[in-house]
Amino acid sequence: MAARLTSSRFVGRISELAELELALHDAAGGEPAVVLLGGESGVGKTRLVSELQRKLAGSAVAPLVLRGESVEQRDGELPYAPLLGALRPLVRERNEALDKLSPMSRAALGTLLPALGGGALSGGRDDVTGQVRLFEALLELLDLLSEGQPVALVLEDMHWADRSTRTFASFLASSLRQEPLTLLLSFRTDELHRRHPLLPLLAELERLERTRRIVLEPFDRGEVAEALEDILGGAPDDELVGRLFSRGEGNPLYTEELLAAGLDGRGSAPESLRQAFLLRIERLSDDAQRLARVVAVGSRLDERLIVEVAGLDPSRTQSALRAAVSEQVLVAGEDDRFTFRHALLREALYDDLLPGERSELHLALAQAYERGCEERDQRELERVTAVASHYAAAGEQRAALKATVRAAYAADCVHAFGEVADLAERALELWPRVEDPEALLEMDHIELLSLAARAHSQGGHSARGEALLKEALAELDPDRHPGRYSALLARLARVQWSLNRLQQGVETAERALAMLAPDDRGLERVKLLSWLARTRVLRGRFREAVKDAGEALSLAVDGGHQLAEEEARGTLGMAMVSLGQVDEGVAEMRRAIEIAKTIDDIDAVAYGYANLAEDLNLAGRTADALATAHEGIAAVPSRVRDAHDWLALTVSELAFEAGDWQSARNHLGPPPPWVLGRQLIFRQVRLADQALGDGDEDAAAEALDVAEPLVADSVEPQWIGLFGSLRAELLRRRHDLDGARAAVAEALDRIELCTDDVQRIARVTAVGLVVEADRAQRARDLREPQTERDALEHARIHIERLRAVAEDGGPVERAWLALGTAEHARAEGKRDAPTWISAAAEWDALGRPYRATIARWRAAETLVEVDDRGAAADLAREALESARALGSRWLVDQLAALAGRARLELGVAPAAGDGAEPVASEDPFGLTPRERQVLTLVAEGATNRQIGTALYMAEKTASVHVSRILSKLGVRTRTQAAAVAHRQLLD
Questions:
Q1: Do 281-353 and 929-985 show the same overall fold?
Q2: In this structure, are residues 318 and 378 in contact, taking their beta carbons and an 8 Å threshold?
Q3: Nearest to 722 by CA among 689, 755, 687, 692
Q4: Residue 351: count of CB within 10 angstroms of its CB
Q5: Which residues contact 288 (CB under 8 A, 6 or more apart)?
Q6: d(CA 144, CA 638)
Q7: Distance between CA atoms of 39 and 836, rounded to whole angstroms?
Q8: Domains in the chain: boundaries
Q9: How far apart are CA 778 and CA 781, in angstroms?
Q10: What are the mean pLDDT values of the chain's consecutive 10-residue runs (987 residues total)?
Q11: Considering only CA atoms, which of 413, 412, 427, 414 is closest in space to residue 457?
Q12: Dihedral, CA of residue 528, residue 529, residue 533 and residue 536, to nearest 10
């Protein structure tokens, strides 16, 4: 037999190795990389990574490599298995980065790595945030590690990865910004069947620009010969190369195993790879074969456990282990545990075991692990999971049920929701097969159903969670157990809300509240009231929210429940600000933020600042709102990515309102790849608002198209109203006035039903008035009196609504009313410049220059129509300077066009792009392209002769064109034609 199995020479893979080196080099330069390394079993993925690590050792860009492998579990997955393998060396070596972790991150990582210590997590709004907090702690650790050198996190065998590891890989890839970090995931391509759970993750990662996919192909014949030459110590003959290349199909592992099995003087090469594996096992001594079978069942075992299960004395065990290692069947890892040289070798031996032999070994391992669980070491989670897995594989249902529930609770402690759900479901299957399971587990079936339901809901499978909760409720007598029944209803309400059955969720929560005894002042009532209050705020029902939040706050303070007090105060404050009790509401929200800081609830701190800034903005305190958002960003660590990104969007929104559009654009930044839910809506409407302000209609349309299905599923007026107003404005600018009217109507229909949210109603209604003013003006130009009357009726309804809203609202609503009043006058055909000037003053008082500039542009336009050119020039000049300062290209173009056609002397040098020819939209009058050219000159005051000279046509021909244009426009004079052109065609 050959002295060794594997070639010491690195064969082939030159381009793949170079691609990996490039990824690491880019990461070292601040461009983090994600590498997907695929290939069939045995093709050399692990060897490639090891060669990369060897080659870079000692170089200037040598990374700190953290490697962990996923573990195949037939009856249960170890949560975070490859992460545990990658991080444990850091704990053993007491890496200095661990000492730099924030207390909260250390506590979060302590749940995963008990040897790290750090105590229990404090704060936390709900269990769902626990997983996010753990992921953020891992991200902070990677950030700290990368301060000294680049970091490569290598997670191998991802085809076996547990759901929580896949979720973390998704989180990490989407969170990378400029860290010198490479995430490398390896997987077997031949394992990925059509419904394999890894496929969705691979598809998402491949959409990232930073992702590289490398697939290793089998060796060609020349590479097989090169590897054989190194193994054999001399050139192999062509017949041997041909036979091994044919049978091994160029797979390095297959080739090595076929060589080892067939060229040692004991027979010809085997017909199959499985036979080759088993031949190598059979050549071991009886003791070594016994140990190999134990490791085949246990996957990765330390010597103490092998001795215990194999039943050999220590001296015989050591001799047998030494033989198995020297024969390159087993290898010893850095963690002093033994595993097979390759997983395929283990799989072949496991499958060859007799059913009884396999069950016996599983049972022995389960019992050995169970005894080890009493020691409570850093592998406690792994041991508990292994006990459940081995008992299940052994067919010991009673022991398996107990161990599976214990493993579910252990997984719950590290927020591995997917694994909790899987384990709880397995326990539910075992429940009816076991005698007296309640006595065994000291829990009833309802509690197990509740555990499974919670895990499914937290893991994003709310429909299954709802079904399990309903099953639990069906088993519970509400008259005998009203408190417990109420708690299940409260959980069901949250699940129904997450499934977008919002009213049903509220009704379920109200039913849960009604089931509690009137004198029950416990935490469950506080939580229910707080949740109901928050949902009412989101739906714009502020008066109801004040009642529920006030009661929740009183109970929370009396009971000393700080977390509940923080949530109740924050909700109460938001509702009060929205009802006009601004100072009182702001005080409550400030107090909530201070409580959140005290209990170290960083999520509550972040969203407390975001909500306070938003409410200050709604109250018209623009500068205070922006300062508060900046204060929030300073208070929240950047590693808390979701919260930090939300605050950045808030700063962008408020900077836009305050007129600092450069800051607004900077804080908007490039979108993270996988933003979801409310944050995706926020980002898209912010993008659309900025794009419309800039004048980029295509970008606005693209952003709104992404947001549309999300807003359709939402019941929150803040998104419905903002989306509706932006969609209407976009369609209005594109001269689709029917579509703009429909967008306004839909938004109002959805947010007006039983809502107190006057802020959002005001904005949508004001945009509705702009649309109706355009409709009325166009109808007059086209001499369509019925259409004009219809537009005026809609405008009347809008202005009445806006007046009613302003009575209940504050300074922002009054500013919208001032704008709406001016638009209403425009709809009626009145040339009322003072109303526009008054609207500009209202927006100036709020510190919002964009709205004020629009009002001044309209005022200047009106003054031109009444021939007050001096006053028009003054207003247009002021508006133009403001539009340029903002960077609003469309407003600059509108003002430049107004100055051009009205011959206004603005005394301002034209900036790049001013007065650029606007893109023509679809012509509602049926003018030909030639007639549009003529109309442009008519609008500039050109005579027929001048038109003929400019367009190279006879004066008489120009006269005919002008006559046709007047007829199509339905006007009698060139002046009227020019007015229609400016409003409908040329702006």
A1: yes
A2: no
A3: 689
A4: 12
A5: 320, 321, 323, 324, 327, 329
A6: 13
A7: 68
A8: 14-217, 222-269, 281-353, 715-830, 833-917, 929-985
A9: 5
A10: 63 89 89 93 88 81 87 71 89 86 81 69 51 84 88 93 90 85 92 87 88 91 86 84 82 80 49 73 89 90 88 86 87 83 84 91 90 61 87 92 92 88 94 94 94 89 92 94 92 86 87 87 88 86 91 91 90 90 93 90 87 92 94 83 85 96 88 67 94 94 92 85 96 93 94 70 95 92 90 96 88 95 94 94 96 96 89 93 94 87 70 41 66 80 77 76 78 73 62
A11: 412
A12: 60
Long-range contacts of range 16-23, CB-CB < 8 Å, 24 or more positions apart? 16/48, 16/214, 16/216, 17/48, 17/51, 17/52, 17/55, 19/212, 19/214, 20/48, 20/49, 20/52, 20/184, 20/214, 21/52, 21/55, 21/56, 23/182, 23/212
Q: Can you name the residues that pair with 211 across neighbouring β-strands?
A: 34
Q: What is the pLDDT, as a whole number, of residue 124?
A: 42
How far is the C-alpha of 554 from the C-alpha of 629, rounded, in Å?
A: 29
Q: Whose structure tokens read 């425009």? A: 826
Specify the 3-state DSSP secondary structure of 249.
Answer: coil
In sequence order, the β-bridge partners of residue 741 are: none
281-353 has which fold?
Arc Repressor Mutant, subunit A (1.10.10)
Question: Cβ distance 954 to 945 under 8 Å?
Answer: no
User: Which pair of tokens denotes residue 228?
Assistant: 């054989």
Tokens standing for residue 382? 């792994």
pLDDT for the residue 425: 94
- Tally the residues of the chain: 987
Q: What is the pLDDT of residue 538?
A: 80
Distances (CA, A) of 178 to 97, 107, 173, 639, 664: 19, 26, 12, 13, 21
Give the integer Cα–Cα distance in Å for 821 and 801: 12
CA distance 776 to 792: 7
What sign for the dihedral angle of Cα 734, 738, 739, 744? positive
What kind and span of H or E run contains 187? Answer: strand 181-188
Residue ranges of alpha helices (H) inside 697-784 are 697-712, 717-733, 737-751, 758-782
Cα 515 to Cα 810: distance, rounded to the nearest angstrom: 39
Q: What is the largest CA-CA distance in the chain?
A: 117
Listed in sequence order, the residues at least 6 apart from 375 whose beta carbon sits closer than 8 Å to its beta carbon are none
- The contacts of residue 963 (CB under 8 Å, 6+ apart) are none
Cα separations in angstroms, 329 against 244, 278, 821:
20, 11, 86
Pick from 873, 883, 902, 877: nearest CA to 987: 902
CA 522 and chain centroid, separation: 35
Alpha carbons within 13 angstroms on the beta-carbon side of residue 281 total 25
Cα dihedral 51, 54, 55, 60 sign: positive
- Round to whole Å and give the CA distance between 495 and 559: 27
CA-to-CA distance for 190 and 195, rounded, in angstroms?
Answer: 13
| Residue-wise DSSP of 484-553 | HHHHHHHHHHHHHHHTT-HHHHHHHHHHHHHHS-TT--SHHHHHHHHHHHHHHHHTT-HHHHHHHHHHHH
Q: What are phi and psi of 960, to 5 degrees?
A: -65, -45
- Assign a CATH topology to domain 14-217: Rossmann fold (3.40.50)
Residues 6+ apart with CB under 8 A from 717: 539, 540, 750, 751, 755, 757, 760, 761
Tokens of 597: 């800081």
Distance CA(804)–CA(796), nearest Å, equals 12
Which CATH architecture fits 929-985?
Orthogonal Bundle (1.10)
3-state secondary structure 785-808: HHHHHHHHHHHHHHHHHHHHHHHH
Asked if 137 contacts 105 with a C-beta cutoff of 8 angstroms, the reply is yes
